[in-house]
Amino acid sequence: MIRIRHVLNKFSLGIILGLISIPVYGQLSMGARGLGMGQANLALPQYDWALFSNPALLNNEDISVGFYGLRNYGFAELTDMSAIASVPTRLGVTSVGFHRYGANLFNETRLRLGYKNDWRMLHFGIVGNYSHISFGGDYGSGGAIGIDVGVAAKVSNNLWVGAKTVNINRSSYRGINEDLPRETGIGFSYELNELALFAFDVVKDVNFPVAYRSGIEIKVIENLKGRVGITTEPLTYSLGFGYGREQWDVNFAVQKHELLGFSPGLDFMIYF
Fold first, then answer.
1. What does the H/E/C string look like for 212-271?
2. Across the chain, what does the average pLDDT equal?
3. Burial class (CB in 10 A: 0-12, 13-18, 19+), 102
């Protein structure tokens, strides 16, 4: 029975990959909080996983370590796994991150090193990113180094605006005919009386249509927050929740792709 289930999973995975006529990459942004809010995370202040979305919003209050996993459409072969650590100092915030996606047929690994600082209301950050992708069999592998930048500003007591550009140096993978993804986006977030947070992003990848992403985070009770979100290109719906205390935080989210099904994600943060 186990072998039959394994074969069916392989068969279904092949169908999914066949339905997608574009290269299948792991997600660029990480974190279950952002996933639950429709990946509208470009202007989320103090976002723990900002190293993967907008480095200008790295957590500058605590030393933190976090872990995140996302099982895309229920397949272990399409799992995103990542880890992050951030250290704020008097000279700014330094952060390192790791991300791996896929299995033997195709996998992608990223190592990221970021720095963030601020001047008055303006926050700015930069990330050096090494990506390596590998195709199964003798189809090759290659690596590329990209530079990402981000800016953000608190324009009023409740309103943030943020923007990012991915791979500003237009890097490509060495050894294979693949370009490192290039993406630009701008986002807004508005907090309403500490009870609700609204976020909206517009993102453009050079290879895909413009995507709109939006989400809402609502304070349910003390330390417990609920979230919903929606994206276009592709059309997805998501919901999730997060519960946190002073020294730890856990977030869970589920995203539903209109064709491919459900993807559950979970992250866990520790603060020192």
1. EEEEEEEEEECCEEEEEEEECCCCEEEEEEEEECCCEEEEEEEEEECCCEEEEEEEEEEE
2. 89
3. buried
Percentage of the chain modeled with pLDDT above 90 = 73
- 170 CB-near residues (< 8 Å, 6+ apart): 179, 180, 182
- pTM, two decimal places: 0.87
H or E element at residue 70: strand 64-71
What does the alpha-carbon distance between residue 133 and residue 187 come to, in Å, rounded to a whole number? Answer: 29
The pLDDT of residue 15 is above 50: no
Rounded-to-integer distance, Cα 39 and Cα 111, Å: 21
Peptide bond into 55 cis (omega under 30): no
Q: Amino acid letter at 15?
A: I
Residue 186: φ, ψ to 5°: -135, 145
Identify the DSSP state of 27.
-
Q: Return the pLDDT at 118.
A: 94
State the greatest distance between any 2 C-alpha atoms of the chain, in Å, as a whole number. 62
Q: How far apart are CA 77 and CA 45, in angstroms?
A: 33
Other CB atoms within 10 Å distance of the CB of residue 32: 28
Residue that the structure tokens 């490192």 belong to: 180
Closest CA to 50 of 168, 172, 158, 187: 187
Please give the Cα distance from 174 to 108 (Å, whole number).
Answer: 14
Nearest to 157 by CA among 45, 60, 37, 47: 45
The alpha carbons of the chain give a radius of gyration, in whole angstroms, of 18
User: What is the spatial distance between Cα 246 and Cα 262, in angstroms, rounded to a whole number?
Assistant: 31
Helices H / strands E in the chain, number of each: 2, 14
Q: What tokens were used for 140?
A: 């090759």
Residue type, position 38, single letter: G
